[in-house]
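As promised in the previous annual report, we have extended the structural survey to additional targets. Below is the entry for tRNA (guanine-N(7)-)-methyltransferase.
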Amino acid sequence: MSDSANTPEPPPHTPGVSLRRTRAKGEPRFPDGPKADPAGSHFERRIRSFQPRRSRVTAGQADALQRLWPKWGLDIDGSRTLDLPDLFGNDNPVVLEIGFGMGEATAQMAAADPTTNILAVDVHTPGQGNLLNLADRNGLSNIRVANGDAIILLREMLTPDSLDGLRVYFPDPWPKKRHHKRRLIQPAFLTLAATRLRPGAILHCATDWEPYAEQMLDVLTAHPDFENTQADGGFAPRPDFRPLTRFEGQGLDKGHVVNDLLFRRVQHVDQPHMDQPPAGA
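The corresponding structure token record, generated without further manual editing, is:
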């Protein structure tokens, strides 16, 4: 016999009063969503190029994280090698985007080019939820959202020559001189990225911080695995495929200068050994 008759009725809900319950200590924020620290302490401690930000997650973003993360999200835990055709369900080219903010530009690029897959990485939970929401609302099945450290993703989870492009738009400039070591675009990062980019793939950076733009240009120009697509060796005009974001528009209104850099992954030709004749000799 049911004891429902003895179960007290829940109190009526008062409009305008939140029903959010308090999480117990240690309980995950989104049980079916991104983990707070997916790689944990499995990898070496090093200087990070990103700073996780805690900010309010809206109801829509929270719903998207709970509902869509198992379908379109992945945690960067470094424990497996990704099969990109399996991840996206097709053999289309894959572009890695590191740092997508709230995801509006990512969604626009995915909609404009549905035959290119975008693996978008960030640690900002509201942005992850917002991008999933945009992808769902607009039927963008060519987006996957990754949570965690892009370095671990590149080094531990992607195979050589698996990427057809890399986008780094408006990374944290770390303006103070003592923090410059935290900037993402450094020789070691480029060397790692080059191993995952197929020859001919484009590395596209954009920043509104001019000193960082100059450093990016210097570091990329000096790196043997990349060549500038611009004949004059300088910055590139903003390509049509990179949308003008609200953040960027606000900066331009304030007089900020935005610089784009488009560098191509070089195909190296192996030199013959000294004890071997050149090919065709």
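Helices lie at 59-72, 84-88, 104-112, 125-137, 150-157, 187-196, 210-222, 246-253. The radius of gyration is 22 Å. These points will be discussed at the next consortium meeting with the crystallography subgroup.
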